[in-house]
What we know:
Layout: E1 4-6, E2 10-12, H1 18-24, E3 29-31, E4 36-38, H2 44-57, H3 59-149, H4 152-165, H5 171-193, E5 196-197, H6 199-206, H7 212-215, E6 226-227
Antiparallel strand pairs: 1-2, 2-4, 3-4, 5-6
Helix pairs in contact: 4-5, 5-6
Amino acid sequence: MKIIIHDDQYISFPFELKDAFREAFPNAKWNPTRREWKVVKGAKQRLKDWVKEVEASGLLQEMLDQETARLSEEEVLRLQIRLSKLKYDITCEEDAAERAAEAKTRAEQLKEQLAGLEQQLRTRKEARSQAEAKKAKAKAEVMVILQDVADVDEIECLRMGMKSDWRSIKAVNKDRFEEKQNRLREIRDDLETVGLYSEALSRAISANYNRRDRDLPDLSVELEFELDE
């Protein structure tokens, strides 16, 4: 908030004094290059007097006070905006920290669940492995016993023969069908004496020649043997 005179003719001052200056110096010209006002020659002393008059009026101080107040209000506003932003940033950080803590807790819970499931899986694998080993052992024992009692190839041949007998409904085919069943009964009885049982064998023996539509699938059941406990 200053008034400056250059070369006795040029003067610069706050924009708020423009109207007062133009009233005192109506013939003054604006110099856009120097960005100053130029008064006519011979007005040097009057220009100085005008400056002294303005300075003595306290107008410059009043304008300075107003500018200072305006700047203070702007500074307060900037500080308020900055404070609001900091509060917002702090809230965001707190929320992010809370979410991170929740995620950490959830991750720890999932790790515990995963560890439990992995243990269950290991236990079940071990149980399955033991069951398979037990089954394999039992099967081996069954096969040792079976070799001395029955011929698996003979049983399969008899079952296939029964299927062939079903291809045409004839009395002779029924006789052959029942002959094969009788032989399978003998084999089953022999197996029972050593404690062996076969679901497939029992189904073949129970098949009804007159119910091919119902019993044919029974002759395709996988042939397996187990110890009759």
